[in-house]
Recover the amino acids of this structure.
């Protein structure tokens, strides 16, 4: 990174944690004042630097509930399966559910669709926690989890209800829906992409058009940050994905006078501020 260049930064207004992650982190921090250790099922969010900060407060992610027990376990914002909930109650004195209200709303939609005998299509990543939780709710009615219309077999379908993982691209959801409309007798469509994700993607698109270069800040393992980076990179070739301030040293910003700053829903504000400070030095 070259210094002493006068730079203008265009910082996305939609930045910092989304409301679901913010709520989960704030509950965890409150509990950490009360208990020696607070365990969380999986990571509360996908950002290595923030996880490190939380670990210093003895907020510890665990993958395998079976291997631990303790006073308190937090279920993450993107939900937990029935098996995980049952096991959690056996192993921990207190189980606190931080499932995001938007995810709970998608669960409610799926339950209603099942009552009306619809098959369920979920648009999202098969391995993602939220999609696994939604698939479990759909149960035998699940037709499939898709990331593209091309994955849907050419045949005729009956009654199909479509929902999506909260952080999916809307364009992917619409593409899958279009394909199912062509092949099905009846389609019930629910756009369950989270409004906070949509606003971030729209703003990032605008910033990528205006800026000379774009810096997307997010965790290596954060699907939504990776997706945001892909989005800006398609529009602006001079886009860089950085995980922390040290990554700025590895990139060449010599020709960048106007730098756009965007970030995923699991990127903490303090990390964004660190990057901004370093860029303005
Ligand atoms: S992205 Fe949206 S649905 Fe997911 S945790 Fe954040 S606010 Fe909730």
């Amino acid at each position: 990174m070259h210094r002493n260049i006068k730079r203008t930064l265009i910082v996305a207004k939609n930045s910092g944690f989304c409301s679901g992650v913010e709520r989960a982190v704030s509950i965890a921090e409150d509990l950490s004042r009360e208990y020696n250790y607070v365990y969380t099922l999986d990571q509360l969010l996908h950002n290595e630097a923030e996880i490190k900060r939380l670990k210093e407060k003895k907020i510890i992610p665990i993958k395998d509930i079976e291997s631990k027990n303790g006073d308190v376990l937090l279920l993450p914002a993107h939900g937990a399966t029935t098996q995980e909930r049952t096991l959690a109650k056996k192993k921990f004195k207190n189980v606190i559910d931080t499932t995001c209200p938007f995810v709970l709303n998608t669960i409610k939609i799926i339950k209603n669709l099942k009552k009306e005998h619809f098959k369920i299509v979920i648009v999202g990543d098969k391995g993602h926690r939220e999609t696994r939780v939604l698939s479990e709710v759909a149960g035998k009615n699940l037709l499939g989890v898709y990331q593209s219309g091309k994955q849907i077999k050419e045949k005729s379908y009956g009654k199909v209800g479509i929902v999506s993982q909260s952080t999916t691209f809307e364009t992917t959801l619409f593409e899958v829906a279009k394909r199912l409309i062509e092949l099905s007798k009846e389609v019930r469509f629910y756009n369950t992409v989270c409004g906070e994700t949509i606003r971030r993607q729209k703003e990032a698109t605008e910033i990528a058009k205006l800026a000379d270069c774009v810096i997307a800040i997010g965790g290596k393992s954060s699907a939504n940050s990776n997706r945001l980076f892909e989005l800006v990179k398609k529009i602006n070739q001079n886009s860089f994905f950085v995980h922390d301030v040290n990554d700025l040293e590895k990139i060449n910003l010599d020709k960048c006078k106007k730098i756009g700053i965007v970030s995923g829903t699991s990127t903490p504000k303090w990390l964004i501020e660190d990057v901004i400070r370093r860029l303005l030095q």
Notes: The pocket of iron/sulfur cluster is lined by residues 18-21, 77, 100, 102-103, 166-167, 194, 196-197, 265 (CB under 6 Å). The chain has a mean pLDDT of 94.
